[in-house]
Design goal:
- By secondary structure, this protein is α/β, with parallel strands linked by helices.
- 41% of the residues lie in helices and 16% in strands.
- It folds into four domains: 236 residues, Rossmann fold (3-Layer(aba) Sandwich), CATH 3.40.50; 64 residues, no CATH class; 81 residues, no CATH class; 147 residues, Trna Endonuclease, Chain: A, domain 1 (3-Layer(aba) Sandwich).
- Strand 6 and strand 7 form a beta hairpin.
- The longest helix has 21 residues.
Amino acid sequence: MRKPLPIGVEFFEKMRSRGYYYVDKTLFIKELIDKKGEVNLFTRPRRFGKTLTLDMLRCFFEEGRDPSIFEGLKIMEAGEKYTSMMGKYPVIFLTLKSAKTGEEKSAFEALREEIAGEFKRHSFVLDSDALSDEDKADFIRFRDRKPEPGEYKNSIKFLCKCIRVATGKNTILLIDEYDVPLESSFYKGYYESMVSFIRSLFEGALKTNDALEFAVITGCLRISKESIFTGLNNLSIISILTPDYGEYFGFTDEEIREILDYYKLSDKYEEVRSWYNGYIFGNSNVYNPWSTIMYLRDHIGSDRDYFPVSYWANTSSNSIVRDLIERADSGTKGEIEKLIAWGSIEKPVHEDITYGEIYQNQDNLWNFMLFTGYLKIISRRFEGDKLYATMVIPNRETRYIYSEKIINWFDMEIVKKSNRNALFESMEKGDAEGFEREINKLLTPSISYMDSYENFYHGFMLGILSGSDVYTAKSNRESGQGRSDILMTTGDVFAKAFVIELKTVKQAGRKPVTLEMMDQAAEKAIKQIDERSYVDALLEEGYGNIGRYGISFFKKKCRVHYKDGYS
């Protein structure tokens, strides 16, 4: 019987004790010990195993953990220098992702709850006679969430001190998702107060804390040192550009071949490589681990020929990327088109990001997209002291996100600013020429790319047909002998309803596309409505007054045909 896939498993002990398939990343521990960084910040895109890695560190170093969960793993063969450190330290583990809330009070309450949990977990120090009554009283206040936010500046440093007084040992500090509350607060309007809180917390915990053995922090972005890590001279930043630790976040090619072989999917290697490989971290080329595991889930057993999809599309925070894109100029839109056509762009790279300055320069968009996994670097050059990078889309999965999400963000921003009254009036009258004219007006400024396909035009049409005060657009609804592209209804069964079918006309070699070819495609769309009985869903709902639109597209041009009634 094959091992189960670790879908959503972020705790190392659970991963090992319950027999999940585990890609051995334990030599990360060896490298961390060898490099001896006092405060280590690792930045990687979302869903690349940061939380699991931190929990692995906790399980390895923390006192009282079961050492058997590391049996058979690579770290156990690394030598006594490393294995002798197993279970020798107290560990504080904080995750800040719980502070991703809708408003300031609940965000700070979530952080206080997280800190209180670590005080509670280390309540054994209260049994120590070495701890003063005053320190015990303060410890209990933090454990019971009594202090005000301003008192938390030295809370972690104080916890480290109490632990050392009680045990004689320095503490290892692990902080996960440190930038989540910063991004959330930026969009909810309390960024400055959150920056102040996180800065003071980190200063107390990481700066001049003689009870700290070492710290590991993870996040998606490297937030400006001036905004968060003020005066932290002992900070070692390991970003996707840093040569070290590259293979420990994400799966290597060798690991992918092994896992595919284990689940008897070796013949899917090229498909997995083209869809989920291509991320460059330091000197390592890695696959997206989340997407790979989800792909395996959907392809094991009888579903082995299930098509690949973009699993990562809805796991990342897209808010800032979307906001930057909607502010973009025509030049940026052209560069997006170039990327989707598998082209490259060259941009200056700066790693420090301050949310407060993010809209000051359009280059921030490309940096944000690079460090959040939407782009990868294929070459670099220096001009003076500035780094310029040539960047491309990493793989087909990420390209899908561009074509399905990012392009729609561009075009829907255009649509939101347009007056579509004439569009809906033409549609309602069965005025094919007027409907065509209004669609073409909206197509002209929209983004385009070399291999437009029906999914793009489907999303575009849904966007421009949404927002009517009268009509509701329904997409890909089961009807008759298949799925119609779009149904337009009012809710009043005595009013007119419409079935809309879309076709894309493709150029064959050097033979030009003609209007006649587009007309034929539009007629073919109406014929498909009839042959597959797409009107049945409307008839079943009680609609009797029905119109049929066939629309064909080629690049930024459409042709619209209309027939009244139904066959």
